[in-house]
Write a structure and sequence with these properties.
Helix content: 25-40%
Distance between the termini: 38 Å
Bound molecules: adenosine-5'-diphosphate, pyridoxal-5'-phosphate
Structural class: alpha/beta
Radius of gyration: 18 Å
Shape: globular
CATH class: Alpha Beta
Order of helices and strands: EHEEHEHEHEHHEEEHH
Strand order of the largest sheet: 3-2-1-4-5-6-7-8-9
């Protein structure tokens, strides 16, 4: 034994299954940055790669990862560590949804946090329809916490109009009927009003989280950051109410300190609160 020999660290672990977004503004990159900022050891499985096309109006180029490659990554991650908290981000295709759901069912989870990404910002809503059904049938019943934005809340609840906080709460209750105990429905910039309002619904208990809107534009990575921060806090042992409250503060600080580059959107900077 040398004097400087130390036992290995036993850190809290957070696992994410999500897509890669090549500018670092959303997806797995954001999830791992958030985990790191919040002091948990992060590991991840890539489901698809989104590479915006700067030569064509920054449109989406979407490349799914083959199902067997996703299964292999999940096998490695779950064999290496005893994981009990996982975040699910963009899956993208019914085939991906199937292999991820199958992998999740192989072991028990204390929390499955589902960010039900149906489309990424800028994509055609029509592209969401086939993934919507597969997600609803196969992944939503496994989730303990789900974090729909306004578009996803409309789609999953079947409510065409969500324009008030009461309607957002009603949508969250309807989504709860699809399986998850906790629903965090996000009003974000899209719900009319001066504030970015989210609601957390747990059975009959409703918590409204509200901060003044920062600008009027959607900021890339806001939803990913919120769900990843909830996941990190749950990994550290927080209850869902505390995890969501902490995550809301974390994403607000990241939006305030957002990054701007040559792409036509700004991105959350997870390190904003630290620097
Ligand atoms: N401009 C903004 N100012 C303050 N908070 C915001 C703003 N945009 C989004 N948020 C908050 O960021 C989180 C993610 O919301 P949202 O952007 O709606 O998700 P998504 O990225 O899934 O569309 C929520 O807590 C939402 O209220
Ligand atoms: C891989 C990936 N995951 C998730 C998202 C959704 O990101 P946001 O947090 O901005 O809703 C996107 C959007 O571009 C993405 O490309």
């Amino acid at each position: 034994m040398h004097d400087n020999d130390k036992s290995p660290t036993v850190a809290d672990l957070a696992y994410v299954i999500a897509g890669s977004e090549a500018t670092g503004g959303a997806g797995l990159q954001v999830d791992l940055k958030t985990f790191q900022e919040l002091g948990v050891y992060g590991l991840g499985t890539v489901t698809c790669i989104v590479s915006f096309d700067p030569a064509n109006g920054w449109g989406h180029r979407f490349f799914p990862v083959p199902a067997e490659v996703i299964a292999a990554q999940m096998e490695a991650a779950t064999a290496a560590y005893e994981l009990d908290v996982v975040k699910i981000g963009m899956l993208g295709t019914p085939a991906t949804i199937e292999v991820v759901a199958e992998g999740l069912r192989r072991q028990p989870w204390r929390h499955v946090v589902l960010d039900p990404v149906l489309i990424c910002k800028g994509q055609e809503p029509g592209a969401a329809l086939d993934t919507d059904n597969a997600l609803r049938e196969q992944v939503l019943p496994l989730a303990t916490v789900v974090t729909p934005n306004l578009f996803e809340a409309r789609t999953l609840s079947g409510m065409d109009v969500i324009e008030t906080v009461d309607q957002l709460i009603e949508a969250a209750h309807r989504i709860q009927d699809l399986g998850p105990r906790y629903v965090v429905a996000k009003g974000g910039v899209d719900l009319p009003g001066a504030d970015a309002v989210d609601v957390l619904v747990d059975g009959d208990e409703v918590t409204v989280l509200s901060t003044p809107k920062i600008g009027q534009e959607r900021v890339s990575g806001a939803g990913c950051t919120l769900a990843a921060a909830i996941t990190a806090e749950l990994a550290k042992g927080a209850d869902v109410g505390d995890a969501v409250a902490h995550a809301k503060s974390f994403v607000t600080a990241g939006i305030e300190g957002r990054m701007s580059g040559r792409a036509p959107f700004e991105s959350v900077w997870q390190g904003a609160a630290r620097v």
